[in-house]
Amino acid sequence: MIALLMGLRTISPEDLDTLVRRHAVVTIDVNARTSWLSARVPGALTLDPQSYSRKAPTAARRAKGFGYRDVRVMSAGITGWLDAALPTESGSP
User: Is 4 within 8 Å of 74 (Cβ atoms)?
Assistant: First the structure.
């Protein structure tokens, strides 16, 4: 069964972790830069906050508009990632 959030496919932190470990995904973190610097999914990119909405569904729709095909939203967010005790990165890359 495919879970949806506001019409967008979702992904669990555990499933995202599997894709990250396989280097099979581009992860974009839409949290505030301070949050991204504090803890993020390994390899996650951040964007200029002036160029996107910090709402994950809005950012996902924009990514689809740019041509990305398999766009998903981690509805659990970074809190869900941390609660699952998955690895994080912090600081500037």
Answer: no
Token readout for 89 is 């990165």
> Is beta strand 45-46 parallel, antiparallel or unpaired with respect to 28-29?
parallel
Place of tokens 């019409």: 7
Q: What tens digit of pLDDT does each residue of 24-61 get?
A: 999 999 888 888 899 999 999 987 666 666 788 888 88
Domain boundaries, the chain: 4-83
What are the CA-CA distances from residue 72 to residues 7, 34, 66, 76 (Å)? 10, 23, 14, 12
User: In terms of pTM, does the model score above 0.70?
Assistant: yes
Fold designation for 4-83: Oxidized Rhodanese; domain 1 (3.40.250)
